[in-house]
Design brief:
Helices cover 35% and strands 14% of the residues. By secondary structure, the protein is α/β, with parallel strands linked by helices. The relative contact order is 0.06. Residues 1-24 and 60-65 have low confidence and may be disordered.
């Protein structure tokens, strides 16, 4: 049997170090299709579980030697289908050569291997992953984190139903444009995952302005189904229009959230008041409120919310919030009460260089703060170019002026004993942070 297996193909699997590992499928064959001799069977070590979680990296800026989460998922799916095909061929050949005492076929049965992996799928790879999940072969995909992009409601439901329920800790459905009706169709299939901790639904196109009333049946159904997820710790509803409806949406949750991402959700003061008074406030470790205009009517509710979350908060994002030097001065006392804060995202706001210096000095009391993503100071842009609405254009940056600001920032950090802290305008390191690592 081992000799027959050695003419088999190879499949690429990702590796977090070199970026690529070649897993030889003959190795799988030796484990899955052991020799029928008793001495060989007793001495052979049978592979039962292969853990490939955390190896793939969904970073589009990696070099050519890297393997993305998407391509790693496709490679795994292909391997599962190829092994299943080989199994059928092997059993057919074995049945012709080997006969048991009764005259019937006594071919050795392949040993199953559980492949634990994070999976990413879109419309291009939907078919092959669906086939791999629904094919009963020796390699069995067991998903930990499931990411789906730009899939239909039917396609999303089909894959969720094909996953083994145990062990799925995260479901992320992004850019799927499901809308309220689509989410209501998907949510009942999430209840089958007992270990689900994280649900990320950015760009789902939920817009409460389209509801017939504040007590819309579809919205009530969505809130009720969200409330039956017993272990949920992380929720992302980014870029959904949720004005005034946060209490109704989150009110059925029975356990506190530790990570809540609500960027560009058009929240109102009442939504902030609900969060401040909710069971989630004292448990939140990560909070993303980017994309809100923290002018006078939202700034005070934000201050109150930060004070309520201060005992637990580790990661705060307030990007593209139109914060100016004046608003930053008002916010800093509440911000500095978050004594355990490790990461602060402020990119896309409108601070001047003096405003940046104020931020550096005042946050020096936050001894756990290790990463700050700050905006390019407004006075570091070429003055002749018009200022854009929203983000300032990076190509209008005065590189020499900004280099001087960066050098002074480094000196300030060293002199305050914070040389180990990273202050950067780059979002790359910030985007790599994950709530499970907090």
């Amino acid at each position: 049997m081992a000799d027959e297996a050695m003419d088999w193909c190879q499949s690429e699997m990702p590796d977090s170090g070199s970026g690529r590992v070649i897993v030889s499928l003959p190795c799988f064959a030796c484990f899955l299709f052991p020799s029928s001799s008793s001495s060989s069977s007793k001495s052979r070590c049978h592979l039962r579980v292969m853990d490939l979680t955390d190896l793939q990296d969904d970073d589009a800026e990696r070099g050519p030697e890297g393997m993305s989460l998407w391509s790693g998922t496709v490679a795994l799916a292909k391997a599962c289908l190829e092994v299943s095909k080989y199994q059928s061929e092997f059993l057919k050949r074995s049945s012709k050569r080997r006969k048991g005492p009764s005259g019937t076929s006594a071919a050795p049965q392949p040993l199953g291997v559980e492949i634990r992996a994070d999976l990413f799928v879109n419309g291009t790879s939907f078919g092959i992953l669906r086939d791999a999940l629904q094919t009963a072969g020796p390699l069995r995909l067991k998903c930990r984190d499931f990411h789906a992009e730009e899939l239909s409601v039917a396609g999303t439901v089909s894959l969720l139903e094909s996953l083994e329920p145990a062990g799925v800790r995260r479901v992320e459905l992004r850019f799927n444009n499901l809308g309220l009706s689509g989410l209501c169709a998907v949510f009942p299939h999430l209840a089958r995952f007992p270990d689900l901790l994280s649900l990320k639904l950015p760009y789902s196109n939920v817009d409460v302005r389209r509801l017939m009333s504040g007590m819309d049946p579809g919205f009530r159904s969505l809130a009720a189904q969200l409330g039956i997820l017993p272990n949920l710790k992380e929720l992302n509803l980014g870029s959904s229009w949720l004005s005034g409806q946060l209490r109704q949406l989150l009110g059925d949750l029975r356990t506190p959230l530790e990570s809540l991402e609500l960027p560009f959700c058009s929240l109102l003061p009442g939504d902030f008041a609900f969060l401040s008074q909710s069971l989630h406030a004292a448990a939140l470790r990560k909070l993303d409120l980017s994309g809100h205009n923290f002018s006078d009517h939202l700034l005070q509710p934000l201050q109150h919310l930060l004070e309520e979350t201060s005992p637990s908060l580790l990661h705060l994002d307030l990007m593209e919030c139109r914060l100016t030097d004046t608003r930053l001065e008002v916010l800093l006392p509440s911000l500095c009460r978050c004594s355990h804060l490790r990461c602060l995202g402020l990119f896309g706001n409108f601070f001047s260089t003096p405003g940046l210096w104020t931020l550096v000095r005042k946050t020096a009391v936050l001894l756990d703060l290790r990463l700050v993503v700050y905006p390019y100071p407004t006075d570091c842009y070429v003055p002749e170019l018009p200022r854009a609405v929203g983000l300032l254009a990076e190509d209008a940056l005065d590189e020499e002026r900004f280099a001087a600001v960066s050098a002074e920032l480094s000196r300030m950090l060293v002199s305050s004993g914070r040389a180990d802290a990273v202050w950067t305008t780059s979002l790359c390191r910030h985007s790599a942070l994950d709530c499970f690592s907090l």
